[in-house]
Structure formats: C-alpha cells, structure tokens
Amino acid sequence: MEQKNWHQMGTSELIDMLSISPEKGLTASEAAQRLEEHGRNELSEGKRVSPIILFLNQFKDFMVLVLMGATLISGLLGEYLDAITIIAIIVINAVLGFVQEFRAERSLSALKELSAPTAKVMRGSEWVTIPAKELVVGDIVGLESGDRIPADLRLIEANSCYAEESALTGESVPVGKHAGAIDDEDLPLGDQRNIGFMGTMLTRGTAKGVVVRTGMNTEMGKIADLIQQTESMETPLQHRLEQLGKLLIIVAIGLTIMVVVAGILHGQPPYGMFLAGVSLAVAAIPEGLPAIVTIALALGVQRMIKRKAIVRKLPSVETLGCASVICSDKTGTLTQNKMTVTHVWLGGRQLEVSGEGYEPVGSIFEDGKAIDVKHDLSVKRLLQIGALCNNAQVVKVEAEEPKRRKSKEPQEEWVLKGDPTEGALAVLAAKLGSSAKSLEMLYKREQEFPFDSERKRMSVVVSHQGGRLVCTKGAPDLLMELCNYVLWDGKVVPFTQTLKRKCADAGEAMAQSALRVLGLAYRDLRTTDKCDSEQDVENQLVFVGLTGMIDPPRREVKDAIATCRRAGIKTVMITGDHQLTAEAIAGQLGIMPRGGIAMSGKQLEAMNDDQLDRLVDNIYVYARVSPEHKLRIIKSLQRQGHVVAMTGDGVNDAPAIKAADIGIAMGITGTDVSKEASALVLSDDNFSTIVAAIEEGRGIYENIRKFIRYLLASNVGEILVMFLAMMAGLPLPLVPIQILWVNLVTDGLPAMALGVDQAEKDLMQHKPRTSKESIFARRLGWKIISRGILIGVCTLGAFWITLMEAPGSADHLMKAQTVAFATLVMAQLIHVFDCRSSRSIFHRNPLQNKYLVLAVLSSLLLMLGVLYIEALQPIFKTVPLGFREWCLVFVAAGIPTFLMGIGSVMSRSNKNKTQSKTPYRPQTAAR
Ligand code: ATP
User: Where's the Cation-transporting P-type ATPase N-terminal domain (predicted)?
Assistant: First the structure.
C-alpha cells in the first residue's frame, strides 16, 4: 500500500510510522543518530563571498587601478625600484583592506548566528530548548503564540490555534489549525490545517506537533530561494560616507591635476610630477574610510553583545545615538518578573501569605492568625483555580555552580518553567497543599483558551468525576464583567453593584501598593453546555477572589532612568497592567515627574490623534493598553519629532516594534515574531541594557567622527603641502613614495585605533543628536579644515627653512624632504591624540587607549626605520636627521596642536562669559 500523506494520518498511525512516544519524545542518542543520517534542519544558505574573491576584490578599487597604471609606466620607463616599491605598497594595502573587510564580514555573520532561532522540544521526557537546526524527524515540538514554526510539523494538539502562512501561501489572514486527520489526498497547502509549516508563524494559541520534514525537504525548503531575504546591513551614515568618498575623489583628482600642472609649469620633470600626482591622489582619497566605519560599527556591536544587547539591524546602531524617548514594557523589563503572591482577597476577607521566591513553603494568615486551608472552602477553590488554569511548573533542580561553591555543599533550588504570573499562583497552591500534581489525578484538562495580552485572561475547561468546570483568571476589572455571581462567605450569591464596588476597591488598594492583581473565577458546566469558543465558556462566571503579587523593580533600573534623564532621553512606561500598579512602580523608579500624566488604554481610545499629540510629551505611563495602542503612541511621538525606541514581546507587538525607530525585543520572554521585527534584542530583557546600548551607539558615532576628523585633516594637510609648494615654485616637498608611506602607515593604523576609542565621560550628559545632523556638525568641518591647513603650512615651513640653508643642492633637497616627511608624520601622530576629545589634547589621558598608543609607537618606529636603516634610505629617498633638524621637526609638528589648544581655550572662555550673562538653562532636556 502507498504511504498516506502526513495530513491524512491519525495520531496513532503517525506515532507508529515514526516510532516515537509523544510523552517521552526522542532520546538524545536517537536524535543524534537521526541528525547524523538526515542532516541539519537548515535551508541551504545563499552563496558566501570566499576569502580569495574578497582579496581579489581589493584590486578592483579605482585608486588601486591608478596605482597599477603608474607601476606599469614606471616599469616601462625603466624605473624598476619605483615600480617594485609601488607593487609592494599595493599588496600591503590590499592585505590591510582584506583583513579589515574579512573581520567586518565575520563579525556581521557572527551576529546573525546569535539571533538564530530555537525550538522547544521534548527530549527524553523533558522539554528542552535547542537550536532549531538540530531538530530531526520524529521530534515533538511545543509551540506558543508568537513562535516561528521551526520545521514541518503534523499537529497532535492544538488549542485555539492560528498560523500566519503568508510566506508560503500568500494568504495574510491567519488560518485556524487543528490536530485531526483530513482524509483528502490532494490538498493544497493552505487547506492542510493540521500541518504547521516551517517558517510560518503561530499567531494565537498553543500547539504540539511531530516533526515530519526538516531542512530542504520542507515546503519552505522547496521555495527556499524566495525567503533568502537579507536585512540591509548598510547604515545611512555608511551610505553618506560613500557619497562623500566619491565627492572627495573628484576634489582630490582636481587638486592633483592643479599640482601636477603647476609643477610642470615651474620646470619640474613631467615623469616625477606624474608619479607625485598619482601618489598624491591615492593619499588624498580616504579609501579606507568605509572599511574603518564598518569595523567601528562591528566592534561596537561586539561590545554591545557583551553588554547583553544584540543588534539585528546594523543601521539601528546609528539611530540608537539619536533616541530621545524609550517606551518600555513594565513587567520583566523595568521589574524583575519574579512574582510572589503576598496578598489574597476573598469575598471581603483580607489574607496575607508568607514565604519568598519559588520555594513552596509558607502559610496564609487572616488577622495575623494562620488559617487551616483544609476547612476553608473559599480559599481551597481559589487555590484550585490558580493551579488548574496554569501552564507553569516550579521544579527543584541542583543549584548553579557559584551558589554551590559558596557553601561547598551540593544545594538545590526551585526554578520556574513558564510564565512568572502563573508560577506565582502555582507556588501559592503548592504552599497550601493544592499543588498541580495533587490535582492531576482528580481533574483532566479538556480545553484551553490561552492568555493573550489583548484578552488579558485565560480559561481552561477541566473534567472531574462530578462533571466539568471552567476556571478563568485574568485582569480583575475585565474579568468582573464576565461574572454574574460571587463567592461570598462560602456561598455563591449574585454579584451586585455594591459587591462589585467592594471588589474593585480591594483590587485598587492592592494595585496602589504596586501589587500585580489577578482575579480568579469559575463555573460548573452542565452536560449540555457548549464549550467550543471563549464566548461559550467565559460568561456567567462566579467571581472567587483576587491575588496580589509583588514584582520588585530591577535594582539597576532606577539609575538607568536617571542616566536617561541626564542624557535628554524621556522614559515612558507602557503596560498591560492596572493603572494604579503602573503608577506606583513608575513612582518608585522615578519615571514620573511632577505634573506628568498617567493614562489608561480606554482614555487613549477616547482621544483623537490631535488631542493625543497635544498631550503626548507629558504622558509618562500608559496602563491597561493593548498592543495596537502602542502604534498610536509611537506615531504621535514621532510626529513631535522624537526618535522612539520601543520594547515589546508579544506577537501583537510586532507592528509597533517595526514602526519604532528602534524596535526592541526581549531575548528571554520575547516571541520569535517580535524578535524578527526588532532591530535590537535584549538578551537579559533588562531596561538598563537599552541605556547601555544607547551609550554604545553614541560612543560608536563619536568614534566615527574622531577618525573622520583625523583622516580628513591628514589628507587636507598632505594635499596642501604639495599644492602650496608647487604654487610657490618650490621643489617637491615629499617624494611620491613618502606620500604613499604616510597614507599607508601614518593614516591607517591610528585611525583604526580611534575607531575603538573609549567614550568621553560626559557622553550621556548631552541631549541626543538629531537624526538629520551632518557628520561634520558641531564644528567638526571647521576643525578638519583648520587643522589640515596648519599641518600643511607647518610642514611646508619646516621644508622651506631646511631648504633655504643650501638652496640648489640636491643632497640638501633630500634632507629638506626628509624633514618635511618627519614633520608631516609627527604632526599627524600628535593630532591623533587631539582627535580623542571634543575639547583639547590635555582633556584626556593620552595613554588610556592602548591600541592608539601602540599604533602611534609602531608608526613612529617605522618612520625611524625608514630614516635610519641604510637599506631603506635609497628607496624612500631619506637621509638621517641630526639634532637641529629634529628640533625643527618637533616645533613645526607641535605648532598646530598648540595653536588649536589656545583657540579652544579662548572660545570656551568666551562661551562661559556669554553663558554667565544669560540665565542658567540646563543643557539636558529633562522633559
Ligand atoms: P507589560 O505589558 O508591561 O509586560 P503585563 O505583563 O502586565 O505588563 P500583559 O502581559 O499584557 O501585561 O498582562 C495584562 C494583564 O493580564 C495583567 O495585568 C494581568 O492582570 C493579566 N495577566 C497577565 N498574565 C496572565 C496570565 N498568565 N493569565 C491570565 N491573566 C494574566
């Protein structure tokens, strides 16, 4: 008999066919064997550029081609030494370029690895999370709303399950999924409702499925080429710099032609001028700029990873430095997401619960006295609902290494598997003798209507000996609307307005003390009652009580928020939680300033966009919001000119994450959907990590400005010294090979070291820059030009002074050229320390950046080598310099820094004078 299609098979057939057990899953060794036999669950990757091609690409550069042309001409004219040296320089240049690009590419692909998908799978009777590429046929996979389906799965369980399959079928509306067999041989993919296809998304519900196809055998594998979408890895700044590079090529070539023509007109030999022109053009064009920018970005991104922020889209690194508002979730991001129930309210009774963390040890007290739960039906019912309407588990495991080492004894600890809110209820039940395990024998779950942040509740239908029961838990204000009865003094009575008011008051009192409040309700179902949908079961409920749980703020967040305020960045809390809880926590964290507004989702809905725009700058807390409200908030903030960073974790948060200037997803609790929409993933879900990432983003941008300042000022200096000399009818101040040397050694190494420079201390005390700011803003353009002119003039001055000692002597010309060469190198090596600070060279410890110190020392040593190693002297046309010449070199090289230093002190004192006349206005925008 021919094998049936997977969708036609019933569960038992499927299990036989794949020889698996749905309860135990595969063992590790079975899985390893299958992986060995059938290969990884991966779609074949697009072609990668091989290192050889990358190396050869270096020779495609326009300037390298010009240099090669020059080599050819030198060879033809019989100038073999020149030709060989130029070839050597071309090769070294290519090697450097290759190393830079190779590193940049490798760090970018390492980034992609980091955000690789994972899957929750049953292995050896336990749920474990593994890299999705290690899945094999026969694995049992667990799915939750927001998960990307990691392989083709035949579903064996599906609860209110919908999948978005547009990547495969083009149908953008999510389709319902179920676990039953479908007896139709030729079913189009869109109708295979019991199959979860690789690469599609579960947008609602929960499911379990067996892997039936992996990797290139999946339906997605068949159209793999279509989904090889690569994210743009070029940032706007890189793009702008590329444009700038093109402009600089034209300017440099124009100036070079002028230098060459002027030289020839003043009687210089044409061949010498040709070589000088080519070298000058090569030196004047900052061809290394794009690669150094990529390296600065890539290394910055590596630093961010160390600080737990994973960048998914490189352009966001730049945007991070411009962020002016951070909209953050509360639970888990601002708070620890370690919930413990401390208060219970039951039909007018106030109870308190003892015990800490997830350890199920504690008691429940009324008026200070412990109560006996066994004889308290109301408490028992509340615990029962909390335990049954629950997917979390609290288990005992061996403590992690550091904890054990402290006490030397092997220790055990309780850890949570699942949602912390549910974990808190599971612990509460276990503390008081109603653990899920003890209820398992009596109650069997039949249906689940999962929690989502839109509904803000969850329900299950369970069957027991006496019938069936609905258990519901959720946000109390919304849950109460579904309840017609209340359990009061052990009796079920109508939920009158008076009782509802009492209940709401109790909830608000808990919320005001920063507790997260959950309501619990139930209903006994009759045999005739339908329970196909949420609407069928979530009505006519009996309200049982409230639980209040603490979720302490993360310790480091308060400081991070203060840092943001100093840095002109506003923090806004957006939460699904109750307004009073949100306000209380915002107060504790210092989010809400005097006069700040807290707004609920309902109030937000009642406003039109204009009204919101008028208020939005003053709103610091949004509570009880749904994910679609987030989009409105972002748009409104953006209309006010803000650059918005927004966090999210759920599947419905994806549109807001996409719309934000910097979409941020949670690494631990976030869904795959939210991660894929995001630009940044926080691997620790922590708000302070966002602030760290912003700090890095600002630092990276400033470092890029630092080496642009250095490189361009050096280039201006190099061109100018040649240009002025030719205009003045002087001989060439630098020979071509010296120009190429300066370009390669003195420019390249220190510039790279500036790319990894430490940030200045006051980095987080400025307002964010605007996203439209030019890279040359804040006087950078002026600094580049003025410094370039000073370097050029001083180098020429040193050349001229030496030349005038014995004009007309060829030997003396060589000495003057060596002095010019040494002055140019020294002036640049001093300038590089200037570039580290927006103020002056004395503002920072010059030895702080050890890469820079190393780069400068090696440039210096190499220069001394060129001057004093006899074998190199004829190649580089140098002579050893004496004490007098060195004094001249140092004075000429030091003048630019000295003059710029005086200039900066004067402009600062002028600024201070004008500031002291105007009333004080803080620099930072504490909105
Ligand atoms: P944030 O949006 O800041 O992460 P949050 O976790 O409170 O905050 P949601 O997860 O959308 O936001 O939860 C909203 C409300 O839904 C909560 O205040 C709580 O009352 C209720 N709730 C949360 N988790 C569950 C759950 N597992 N089952 C039932 N109701 C829940």
Answer: 5-79
Tokens of 20: 């698996």
Q: What are phi and psi of 832, to 5 degrees?
A: -60, -30
pLDDT value, residue 246: 77
More confident site: 59 or 403: 59
Right CATH number for 6-45+111-229 from 3.30.260.10, 2.40.30.10, 1.20.970.10, 2.70.150.10? Answer: 2.70.150.10
Cβ 783 vs Cβ 789: under 8 Å: no
State the pLDDT confidence band at 100, using cuts at 50, 70 and 90: low
Distance 816 CA to ligand 1 centre (A): 77
Mutate to test the pocket of ligand 1, among 339, 575, 682, 686 (most ligand atoms within 8 A of CB): 575
Annotation marks residue 329 as catalytic: yes
Query: What is the whole-number distance in angstroms between the Cα of residue 507 and the centre of ligand 1?
Result: 15
Identify the active-site residue in 82, 147, 329, 757. 329
Pick the CATH number of 236-304+693-758+775-908 from 3.50.50.60, 2.30.30.100, 1.20.1110.10, 3.90.550.10: 1.20.1110.10
DSSP H or E segment with residue 326: strand 325-328
Q: What phi, psi does 417 have (nearest 5°)?
A: -115, 110
Contact 877, 735 (CB under 8 A): yes
- Please choose from 331, 428, 458, 669 the residue to mutate so as to test ligand 1's pocket, defined by most ligand atoms within 8 A of CB: 331
Which distant-in-sequence residues (6+ apart) come within 8 Å of 303 by Cβ? Answer: 696
How does pLDDT run across 344-368, given as a tens digit for each residue? 999 889 999 998 888 889 999 999 8
CATH match of 340-402+411-550 with 3.40.1110.10: yes
- Report residue 459's pLDDT band, with 50, 70 and 90 as the boundaries: very high
Pocket around ligand 1: residues whose beta carbon is below 6 Å from it?
329-331, 419, 421-422, 451, 453, 456-458, 473-475, 516, 518, 575-578
Read off the pLDDT of each residue in 576-587 and give the average, rounded to a whole number: 94
Report in angstroms the alpha-carbon separations of 815 from 64, 335, 549, 889.
30, 69, 82, 12
pLDDT tier for residue 58 given thresholds of 50, 70 and 90: confident
pTM here is 0.79
Domain 309-335+554-685 belongs in CATH node 3.40.50.1000: yes
Kindly give the distance from the C-alpha atom of residue 391 to the centroid of ligand 1, in angstroms, as a whole number.
Answer: 14
Give the span between the Cα atoms of 37 and 25, in whole angstroms.
Answer: 18
